[in-house]
Write a structure and sequence with these properties.
Radius of gyration of chain A: 13 Å
Number of helices of chain A: 0
Helix content of chain A: under 10%
Shape of chain B: globular
Order of helices and strands of chain A: EEEEEEEEEEE
Number of strands of chain B: 11
Radius of gyration of chain B: 13 Å
Structural class of chain B: mainly beta
Number of helices of chain B: 0
Oligomer: heterodimer
Distance between the termini of chain A: 33 Å
Largest interface: A-B, 26 and 26 residues
Chain lengths: 114, 112
C-alpha cells in the first residue's frame, strides 16, 4: 500500500485551464504539505495543513488553492494555468508540523502547461 | 531569508570509497535537521532527523552528525556502492510549527 499517493502522476494541459492534483496519506499523520520542485530542482514549500487547518501559506499566486477535506487528504487546485506553473509538485506528510520524524513524500505530479 | 547550503554540489566517487557531504544552516535558532536520499524518478526518502547538538545517527553504512552551535551537519557514507548514487538533501526547521527548508542537495555518483 502506498503511504502517500498523488494523482495524477502526469498532467499535460493548456494555458488558462483549471486543474486539480489530489493527495492522500494512509499513515495517520496529522500534517500534510505541498512542495514545488523549481527549475533548479529546489523543493519549495507552498502550503501546509495540520488537522485540516492551514498553518503555512507561502507567497504563491492566489490561483493556487489548497483544500483539506480531512486530515488524510490535501488537494491542490490551480486556476488559470500559466506556462510558468510547469513543474513537479510533491505532496508530503508528517506526524507533526515540525517533521520530528521526517516527511513521507508522494511520488510527485509532473505538470506541463502548453 | 533563511538558506540551507550544501556542499559539494556534486560528487563522483569510486565504488568502495568513503565520502562525506556538508549541510550548513543558520545557527541562531534551531528545531530539527533532516537528511533525505532522493533517487532519480523517485520521491525523497527520509534518512535521519536530528534535534540535539552532538546527535549522531547511523543507518547501515550511512551516518550523520549535528553541530547546532556552529550550524552544520555532516553525512558520511562508508564504502560507497553504486546503489548509493542519488541526491542527498538536507532540510532544517526553526521551530516545531515552522516550515522545513530544503537545501539544494548533493548529487552523488558512485562509479563501479
Amino acid at each position: 500500500d502506498t503511504a502517500v499517493s498523488q494523482t495524477p502522476k502526469y498532467l499535460v494541459t493548456q494555458m488558462g485551464n483549471d486543474k486539480s492534483i489530489k493527495c492522500e496519506q494512509n499513515l495517520g499523520h496529522d500534517t500534510m504539505y505541498w512542495y514545488k520542485q523549481d527549475s533548479k530542482k529546489f523543493l519549495k514549500i507552498m502550503f501546509s495543513y495540520n488537522n485540516k487547518e492551514l498553518i503555512i501559506n507561502e507567497t504563491v499566486p492566489n490561483r493556487f488553492s489548497p483544500k483539506s477535506p480531512d486530515k488524510a487528504h490535501l488537494n491542490l487546485h490551480i486556476n488559470s494555468l500559466e506556462l510558468g506553473d510547469s513543474a513537479v509538485y510533491f505532496c508530503a506528510s508528517s506526524q507533526a508540523p515540525g517533521g520530528d520524524y521526517g516527511y513521507t513524500f508522494g511520488s510527485g505530479t509532473r505538470l506541463t502547461v502548453v | 531569508i533563511l538558506n540551507v547550503e550544501q556542499s559539494p554540489q556534486s560528487l563522483h566517487v569510486q565504488e568502495g570509497d568513503s565520502t562525506n557531504f556538508t549541510c550548513s544552516f543558520p545557527s541562531s535558532n534551531f528545531y530539527a535537521l533532516h537528511w533525505y536520499r532522493w533517487e532519480t524518478a523517485k520521491s525523497p526518502e527520509a534518512l535521519f532527523v536530528m534535534t540535539l547538538n552532538g546527535d549522531e545517527k547511523k543507518k547501515g553504512r550511512i551516518s550523520a552528525t549535528l553541530n547546532t552551535k556552529e550550524g552544520y551537519s555532516y553525512l558520511y557514507i562508508k564504502g560507497s556502492q553504486p546503489e548509493d548514487s542519488a541526491t542527498y538533501l538536507c532540510a532544517f526547521s526553526l521551530t516545531s510549527y515552522d516550515k522545513v527548508i530544503f537545501g539544494p542537495g548533493t548529487s552523488l555518483s558512485v562509479i563501479p
